[in-house]
Design a protein that fits this description.
Elements lengths: L4 H22 L3 E2 L12 E5 L2 E10 L5 H14 L2 E9 L2 E2 L4 E5 L2 E4 L1 H8 L7 E4 L2 E6 L1 H10 L4 H8 L3 H8 L4 E2 H11 L4 E2 L17 E2 L8 H8 L3 E4 L7 E4 L4 E6 L5 H15 L2 E6 L7 E2 L2 E5 H5 L4 H11 L3
Parallel strand pairs: 3-4, 4-7, 6-8, 15-16, 16-18
Antiparallel strand pairs: 1-2, 2-3, 4-5, 6-7, 8-9, 9-10, 9-11, 12-13, 13-14, 14-15, 17-18
Helix pairs in contact: 1-3, 5-6
Length: 324
């Protein structure tokens, strides 16, 4: 009798997550516990100095859905973090070491590439894009060498096997396919191929495009609507262990509302994420609170919140009750 394939996949994914966490820990990152929640858009957060990573781990990266990617990007933008997908394979085959892939504008790489980058200080140099594998060129060095040596665009084009216009585009910052870049580097006898930074992330949208503010915006949550009324900007999320990011001029608060069956599990996760990210977090509970905080998360009752008519009151209370 064959084993349960779903269970087997889960074990494989758990092993991948454990490997990712071990690599990050060895590289000096403060890491969260692996999230044990279903349908969340990330599995681990990690911080080293000012660098914050939001990481999803999948055996097959083709299973990475657009809605997960969209929420990871929202969180990355709000928390000044870098989203990252760690995987083992795609429908095309295993993820090759030393190559950075992408899906929905989220960088993807294997644990082997992650370990080489963080532990061996061997960064990836190749990235996959439509049409093949590419490398980044040091456009300034390329142009300087050509002009200093009196090499014409036509000569470089002939050596490289591309057009004069393409050489001009290389000098303007366009990436090159591997064969062309290697021919250029060999001819110039200079290191013009640059490493890829898998943690570099440029938000696609401005925060205002998904962040709500003012009493004219409404959500499906009475609590989040009250936060809007008292002056917070609110970014609702659906695939995270909290319901929203609430922002004022001083802090971003990971905001959980007591309306979930797995509240304690989500509170554990939110508290751990709060610790790693250095952001305050709050659970807003329906009935009387037995404690003022849950680990690193402040606990505030709905009655306390209803009595507040200014965001500064809640911000002060959360900061006094949470410990990050």
């Amino acid at each position: 009798m064959k084993g349960n394939p779903i269970k087997a996949n889960a074990v494989t994914r758990d092993a991948l997550i454990n490997t990712t966490r071990a690599i990050l820990a060895k590289a000096g990152y403060d890491i969260s516990a692996a999230l044990a929640l279903r349908s969340v858009c990330f599995d681990v957060v990690a911080r080293r100095d000012k660098q914050l990573l939001i990481i999803k781990v999948l055996s097959n990266v083709d299973a990475f859905a657009r809605d997960n990617a969209d929420e990871m990007k929202v969180l990355a933008d709000a928390l000044s973090a870098s989203p990252l997908l760690i995987g083992e394979r795609s429908s095309s085959g295993p993820l090759e070491p030393g190559i950075v892939y992408s899906r929905f504008n989220i960088p993807i790489m294997s644990n082997e590439t992650l370990a080489d980058h963080l532990l061996e200080e061997v960064p990836p140099f190749i990235f996959a894009a439509p049409g093949g594998l590419y490398v980044k060129l040091n456009k300034d060095l390329l142009k300087d060498l050509r002009e200093e040596r009196g090499i014409s665009l036509g000569t470089l084009a002939e050596v490289t096997g591309v057009s004069r216009r393409t050489i001009q585009m290389y000098e303007s910052g366009m990436s090159a396919m591997i064969d062309a870049a290697l021919r250029l580097e060999e001819y110039l006898d200079a290191p013009i191929i640059e490493p890829v930074d898998p943690f570099e992330y440029k938000p696609e949208k401005r925060g205002e495009s998904y962040e709500l503010s003012g009493s004219d915006h409404r959500t499906n949550s009475i609590i989040l609507n009250h936060l809007l009324d008292i002056g917070y900007s609110v970014t609702p999320v659906t695939k995270s262990p909290f319901e929203a990011l609430s922002r004022d001029r001083r802090v971003i608060i990971l905001t959980s509302v007591d309306n979930e069956k797995d509240l304690r599990q989500k509170a554990e996760a939110a508290s751990d994420i709060s610790r790693v990210t250095g952001r305050h977090s709050v659970i807003i509970v329906d009935g009387p609170a037995k404690l003022e905080n849950f680990k690193f998360t402040a606990v505030v009752t709905k009655d306390e919140l209803k009595r507040m008519d200014d965001k500064e009151e809640l911000t002060d209370l959360v900061m006094s009750r949470s410990d990050v």
